[in-house]
Amino acid sequence: MATASETTLVTTHNESGTKWWTRFLDPSERTLAVLLLMPAALLLTLIIVYPVCRLIWTSFQNLSLTSGVPATFAGLENYTLVLEDPVFWETTWNTVLITLITVPGALLVGLALALMANLPFNVKWPVRLSLLIPWALPLSFAGLIFAWFFHSEYGVVNDVLRRLGIEGVIWFNSANWAFAAICLTIIWKTSSFMALIILAGLQTIPRSLYEAADVDGAGRLRQFFEITLPLLKPAIVVALIFRTITALQTFDIPFTMTRGGPGTSTSTLAMYIHQNTVDFLDLGYGSALAVVMFALSMGVTAVYLRMIRAKG
């Protein structure tokens, strides 16, 4: 015969089990949130956290597939080589310069396109479609198209210049002209992305604000600077964050247009990483370069987020 203490223990155990099962079937908001977020968290761990951790670990190793030697721990040796590598500094500067030129350029062009697309057209879908086409084109395809546009012999740009009585330019034999061609291509390709985000922001601005401004006698320019631009700041910041991160990872367009030439004058950090990991099969050094680019991207994102928090 069970004692009173044993009966109490069994009852308590059954109640706790029933309570757990009831909590699972009828969870609280916090438990439900955890259950719903758990699959996404596991997926992010598999596709983001593990590869990043693996990348960082590989960057501390001497791992070259052409040496035939097993990987060995190298400590900070790869990072020391990165800091002493002149090609790393050149490609990093090229990447930063592309970012500083193309991000503001794409923002200005995208803002103008978004304002045009937001005009009260009777039929709006052709205008919206024209914004989608550059964005939908693959980056490498856009690079090949503009490589043909800027070709010195049969390119469209030189043909137009000759018809205007201006001597054609050998675009890809000069570092400056090749860099300018790449920046123009990137601005054309990415401005539509900026325009789509800004257009979404324009759609959220109430028309009543412009009607009130018309009653007060405010002109279009004043309405733009006092109503449109301030209310577009959240959309612009989001566009800048996404565009800056992708600009720091620029690869496809310079690769298809110039292969980094002449020399390494148009080579980017992403192209240098590709060269070391895919061409030279030096995974340790290439991983160290990739970690530097990852840290640079996260640093820029942190600056943007801090600016948003400060303004908020």
Task: Describe the model.
With 312 residues, this protein is mostly helical. The protein has a single domain, classed as MetI-like (MetI-like fold), CATH 1.10.3720. The chain is 76% helix and 1% strand. It is built from 13 helices and two strands; from the N terminus they run H-H-E-E-H-H-H-H-H-H-H-H-H-H-H. The chain has a two-stranded antiparallel ribbon. Helix 2 packs across helix 13.
Q: Report the top-level CATH class.
A: Mainly Alpha
Number of strands: 2
Average pLDDT across residues? 87
Percentage beta strand: under 5%
Overall number of structural domains = 1
Which shape, going by the Cα principal axes? flat
What structural category characterises the helix and strand content? mainly alpha
Can you summarize the main beta sheet?
Answer: 2 strands, antiparallel
Radius of gyration using CA atoms only: 28 Å
The CATH superfamily is MetI-like
Quaternary: single chain
Q: Which sequence of strands runs across the widest sheet?
A: 1-2
Fraction in helix: over 70%
Give me the CATH fold name. Answer: MetI-like fold
Main location: membrane
Domain ABC transmembrane type-1: 92-304
Transmembrane segments: 32-57, 96-117, 129-150, 170-188, 231-251, 285-305
Subcellular location: Cell membrane
